[in-house]
Amino acid sequence: MTAGLPLTPEDVAEIVAILDRTPYERFEIGLSHYKLSVSRSGSGWVQSWEWPERTEDSTPAAASDRFTPAATLPPADGENLHVVLAPLPGTFYRAPQPGAPPFVEVGDRVGMETVIGIIETMKLMSPVHAGITGIVVAILVDNAGAVDAQAALIRIQPDGP
Amino acid sequence: MIHRLFIANRGEIALRVIRTARRLGMTTILGASAADLTSLPTCLADEVVGIGPAPSSTSYLSIDNIVAAARQARADALHPGYGFLSENAAFAQALGIAGIRFTGPDVVSLQAMGDKLMARRIGAEAGLPVVPGGEAADREAVHRRAADTGYPLLLKAVAGGGGRGMKKVERPGDLDHQIDLAMAEARAAFGDPRIYVERFIGHGRHVEVQVLSDGQRAIHLGTRDCSIQRRFQKLVEEAPAPGLPAAVHDALTAAAVRLARHLHYRGAGTVEFLVDCDGFEFYFLEMNARIQVEHPVTEAITGIDLVEQQLLVAEGQPLGITQDHVKCSGHAIEVRINAEDWRRDFRPCPGRVSRACWPAGPGIRVDTHIARGSVVPPYYDSLLGKVIVAGSNRSETVARLGEALECLDIQGVQTTAGLQRRIAADPRFLAGGVDTRFFEGMGHD
Fold first, then answer.
1. Å from B357 to nearest chain A CA?
2. Total domain count, chain B
3. Would B48 be classed as within a structural domain?
4. Would the ipTM clear 0.85, i.e. be above it?
5. pTM, whole model, 2 decimals?
6. Which fold is adopted by the domain A64-158?
7. Residue A137 Cα, gap to closest chain B Cα (Å)
8. What would the pLDDT profile of B148-172 be if each residue is shown by its tens digit?
């Protein structure tokens, strides 16, 4: 759907080799489907590209920087509940593996170090800890749900006064 | 002949494959997840087909979705890139049934090398030395193996690669916790939670050999050194591996070719070795039956386009190059620029890139899908791009790398560029031939 590929890495290297022997500071090529700018930076050169966003057949659901379903509920609700937040954006897993029982269910007692789920961000698994002693009263994100950083994951009724 | 090539990957490698396929006159069809529909590779492919929702388990790892998309697009061949389904035998099999050529080795080689345990066995069969250790079906078996190998040890994903699902365990008390994490990562990354145990060799270098084979003839394209890693993820790769005695170089490349022949291997592959720094004894680790992230350093010193060779072999052509044609000259280094906050334990940093100035000039190649405005989704690998520099010798190349990294400027997400600048200036790196503990020996602030 494009008219030819942009310049190759080798092409860019050659252009810079030519420019380097000239007094030029900056060089831009603008075509219908991309813009390349090369400019001096210290003793070397940098390349910077611009592309039109591909939009023609993107479905509305494809907005790629939008990954928050039910997760951004207001974290506090006046009942002194503790809300465990996602430390990173990514995918929230309630169980260590598919088919295994969830780490925690509503009604479970948890401690500071209890793992309540795992967030997968860029293929890295980060365990999420309860961070407080108490009883799980609500689970706010489904298994394998997409969450933003700081999204509310579960609510805990803390022990004591 | 391949006319319509389906690319079942994303990011810089999708773009890399598109370039060569287009040069060879193929129509490129990119399979993209919902999170990637506005990415740079989708702008450059001839055609784009959706393969599912953002999470990789429902898109880039979904055999059903990808085979259906490739059929619907009337593709006659598929290139899997690296990671995802690139070494998945069931995937290659499903493509075969659908009448679509897989750009990679045949199902038997994938089964042999895709399972690290079987790879160990077959490596030993082919006469290659292997590291002490072995399989462990469950938690108890891991404990038994651990008692044999001693500590520290490594837990590795049987289906693994790229360091995912791999954990170093220092002491018995940490073992159970690490087993859980390793299995969870292995399942998430490869859909297979099985792990095995291996003795940890502390003072070793990671050296690999690039091979090319058409099922009959096998040749090598020299060595690469990938010893600079963190969490078993490669950060810096160079070709050739510096400071290897000629006899060791010859023994490594001969062993790699022997394995490729033993497998009647078809396509491009990488045979990985752990080389003990004291005495240069070496052990076969695994074979990656796909294109590697670091393949450009080999391309830089040999002048051979590895993706082109893969596609030609996939078309059923015999290798057009002989061992005598392969002339390695000069030196090349690749550094990976990842969206990670390396000062905060490499915390992943998805987001939107507000500025992307990559270095440019003679001897510099940048493979990236990231430009100003690009979105880095949280669902996939953190690789933003690779800076590859080449020169007539190692010291010239290292100097060029330092200059190139000075110019690099990416804003909007945290990157590993600052770390790479420090590595490029580290006296141990300047000297060359560092071991896999290099990173531990680096101050972190």
1. 5
2. 3
3. yes
4. no
5. 0.87
6. OB fold (Dihydrolipoamide Acetyltransferase, E2P) (2.40.50)
7. 26
8. 888 999 998 888 766 666 899 999 9
